[in-house]
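Worked Example 4.2. Consider the chain below.
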Amino acid sequence: MKILLFILLAVVCLNFGVMAQTVTVQPSVSVIGEAEMRVAPNQIGFTFEVVTTDPTIAAAKRANDTASAKTLSVAKGFNIPTDDLQTDRLTISPRYAGEKDPRGKGTVIGYEVTKRIVVTFKQLDRIDEFLAKVIEAGVNRIVDINIENSDLEKHEQQVRLLAVDNARSKADAYAKRLGLKVGRAYVIREESADTPGYTTGFGSGNGSGDGMGDASPGDLSVPAAYSQAVTFALGKISVADKIYVTFELVR
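Applying the procedure from the previous section yields the following structure tokens:
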């Protein structure tokens, strides 16, 4: 019993000792640092598809191979490096008759072969010429267009440093107004800004089809002559960053 009373007394004394201590709160200021940079694009990423159909798989595949080979040949004619050309996907799927087809709904009437080709194109003054040529070669679906800058990582690093400078500038202004000075930073948290770049998606896919089922797959019309002027408004790419920083305040 005496031991229990001794323990309780020790705990009570410890609590009074803790309460008697002066709690020191470190003065601090938390700010948001923001920065943005707009950079000119120097390349454009195209995602093309060559789509062919035929009652037999073999014929549809041969037609697709021919059109795809012509497309790659056009790309090589523009001196596009091998690293900037990629055959990304090959799909073969049956095509079925629709409800209005006299052959009967669900009847296999042929096959569709799709080959996806991804191209990084850097000759921005020849975009229209390039598009006209690949469409003529056999591209009949544009899935995606990405306006890019190959030095984006370098620009992102520059923006990060500018965001840090902005945070420090804000903290200095607040501290000076209060007659204090900014000390070390002890909390830094990054918040990702909007993903840089501009993307135009045209989409792709096969419909269920409720017609006769023998229409050709969305062919793009081939211009009689390519434009001599650039008709793409490339604009500039926004690179932005935001960070949260907490600085200590000192006198």
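The two ends are 54 Å apart (CA to CA). The longest helix spans residues 152-177. Compare this with Example 4.1 before moving on.
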